[in-house]
From TrEMBL:
UniProt-listed Pfam families: BPD_transp_2
Keyword flag Cell inner membrane: no
Keywords: Cell membrane, Membrane, Transmembrane, Transmembrane helix
Predominant place of localization: membrane
TM stretches of this protein: 33-51, 108-131, 176-199, 230-246, 310-330
Keyword Kinase included in the entry's annotation: no
Location relative to the cell: Cell membrane
Protein name: ABC transporter permease
Annotated membrane topology: Multi-pass membrane protein
CDD domains in the record: TM_PBP1_transp_AraH_like (cd06579)
Amino acid sequence: MNSQRSSKSNLKHFEKLLYSAIYKIRNAREGTVMISIILSCTFLAIVSPHFLTEKNIFSTAIGLSSDGILTIGITLVLICGGIDFSLGSVMSLSSITAAVLFRAGANIWLACIIGLSVGLICGLINGFFIGKIGLNPFITTIAVMGIVRGLSYVITEGSPISLFNAPESFFKLGQGSFLGVPIVVLLFILLSLIFDFIARKSDLLRQVFYTGSNENAAILTGINTTKVKICVYLLAAFLASFAGIINMSRFSVATPSIGLGADVSMRGISAAVIGGASLSGGEGTILGGILGVVLLNIINNGLILLNVPVYWQDFINGIILLTAITFDFFSHKRKLNK
């Protein structure tokens, strides 16, 4: 009896310490990113007369929305202690599946549902091999990325699939607006608010933090970490698939080059790490990831407005990611030394 009480007491103490650390890190990192966004916007507004125009603001917001939706899933994966490089390819395959079915005569919305289901299957594969079998998430998701990317090219033979004869209601998803605000932006904001609220308040999402922070301790407290990992990879793949459907609606075409290789996943990982998610797991917030997406897209938009060659964008984004990873590394090292 005394040992059980001691175990429960230690668990409660562990929970308090974990959430105290998460709260402090979250506030510090989110505040830093917010300040960076404000400074970047101020600088670009001064040096470029086009930055604060309505056209540029809406264009930037629409452009970051699909990346932002995907980043929500990536942030949860990182918090859980994993990583996922396959999401860009999943995004592509889901949209291609929907486009092929529509061209074969299926209803566009039914085709989209099947496309989303294909994305869930990809997430289930990741979750099974990582959560159930115990394979390394880095290697596993790169392998799945190659498989899924290969399927996309086999199905399309490298050619885009046009959706010019899809119903107007479908195009409104990616091209329409409501009360003057693009629908895709509204969807992104809605999903961000929902998942940020759930991540902060839900007991289920706390299990994701526990699993990423200390999986062995989570198992001892009765958490089914295998189930948690599978669910997280399923959710990430679903969000990536949804982003793919939105892009298909926005551009009226499905192509295997959307989400090319690990590029889209890398942008999402960069945004999540910049926003406070840790590559070691157990830390991060949805809001932080979203702020990271906003900052990266503002910087890329500024580079375009300032006529910086596109070849420099990857270089600069790489420097930003390296800086964020270095900060994350020394933060963990400092905590371990305390």
